Amino acid sequence: MATPAGFQALPLPLVQLSLAAVLKCGQSFRWSILPLPKPSDPTIPAQEYRLCLRDRVVCLQQSQTALFYRSAFPEPQPSPTQLQLREAETLLWLNDYFQLNIDLPKLYDEWAARDSVFSGVKERFGGIRMLRQDPWENLISFICSSNNNISRITKMVQSLCTQYSPALLSLPDLSGHETHSYHPFPPPSSLAAPSVTVTLRSLGFGYRAEYIQKTAKMLVDVHGTIEEGREPSELWLESLRGLATAEARTELLKFIGVGRKVADCVLLMSLDKKEVIPVDTHVHQIAIKHYGFKGLLKGKSPMTPKLYEEVNSKLVRIWGDYAGWAHSVLFTSDLKSFASYSVQNPTPSAPVKSSKRSNLESLLPTPPTTPSPSPLKRKASASPPESSDKSAGLADRMKRLRRK
């Protein structure tokens, strides 16, 4: 099909990346999903996905064989030359965020060879890969996830941005009848004041309000703030990518409101710890149902540290180095909201409404039992450790060149 007007095209089959699965399965909660006019041709994109970064809104559409992308910028609009440079930055960001250097079908083949259960879902649930998110946003999002469901987490994260981050720009929806404002994710300094707790409680965050404010304050107290650009605490969180998994987990567990499950979500989804499997009741039930793990299929067993470690270790032995990635495929395949999904028809129909509590209500972690008040010990150095995020470094160099 032809590239949509204003978009750039990146050849990429759905088996490498399915936006309809990856952006709806509980990894990230800030993507806006807008329906496109319903096409008669199934190869034509049916949805547009938008995410507000600090300096642009990234807009994506997808066909069976290509990912289409463009960026929208606040005033003043870049010149044609500047726009070309900035779209190159967007492409670098896309490659990093979706980890497109990883050959996903090759991993699927390896998992299917090791696991007959995975082999049974491989064809239908292709294109599900882990995102490489900003660690600060990922941390706060999963503090919000405690004892919560995907739709409510999404509402909370979006209200957090609206309340504490000025709108970057506004864009019309795809019908042209309504305009939407897009807000970046707020930095730690914006959430560190004591008044944040009261405001977030008024917005429906409950006990999570205090966890968010205290976590932000811990970061700011130790690492400080700067006037422009990314804050030192954000750079410190990103530097955890360079630590061993156990050491990085220890650092995350120092935050108020972060237990083992939340820490493991952050390790997997933003800190490059691809072998980590976040374990909750839903994952435990998958282990019982498919992998001979002992336990009751009905009812909830308490998720003790010992049980958590046993489930994690068993699944890692089955799937290997990219066990966290494999788990996300099985996790998604078991969701009721994906009952009609297939990578050949990646826009699942709406699930049948039920008066019973959906599985989505219990997918995410319960509140940590003993949040640690320990202050962070690691100080930010004058020169932050070199990040493994090479594309971000290149984008920063491009920005410096523009300012010369």
From TrEMBL:
Keywords: DNA damage, DNA repair, Glycosidase, Hydrolase, Lyase, Multifunctional enzyme, Nucleus, Signal. One of its GO terms (cellular component) is nucleus. GO terms for molecular function: 8-oxo-7,8-dihydroguanine DNA N-glycosylase activity; class I DNA-(apurinic or apyrimidinic site) endonuclease activity; damaged DNA binding. Residues 144-335 form the HhH-GPD domain. Its EC number is 4.2.99.18. Residues 346-404 are annotated as: Disordered. Gene3D superfamilies: 3.30.310.40, Helix-hairpin-Helix base-excision DNA repair enzymes (C-terminal), Hypothetical protein, domain 2. Residues 365-374 have a biased composition (Pro residues). InterPro entries: DNA_glycosylase, HhH-GPD_domain, HhH_base_excis_C, OGG_N, Oxidative_DNA_repair_enzyme. It catalyses: 2'-deoxyribonucleotide-(2'-deoxyribose 5'-phosphate)-2'-deoxyribonucleotide-DNA = a 3'-end 2'-deoxyribonucleotide-(2,3-dehydro-2,3-deoxyribose 5'-phosphate)-DNA + a 5'-end 5'-phospho-2'-deoxyribonucleoside-DNA + H(+). The keyword DNA repair applies. It is an enzyme of class 4 (lyase). SMART domains: ENDO3c. CDD domains: ENDO3c. Residues 1-20 form the signal peptide. The keyword Membrane does not apply. It is found in: Nucleus. GO terms for biological process: base-excision repair, AP site formation; nucleotide-excision repair. Pfam families: HhH-GPD, OGG_N. PANTHER family: 8-OXOGUANINE DNA GLYCOSYLASE (PTHR10242), N-GLYCOSYLASE_DNA LYASE (PTHR10242:SF2). Belongs to the type-1 OGG1 family. This is DNA-(apurinic or apyrimidinic site) lyase.
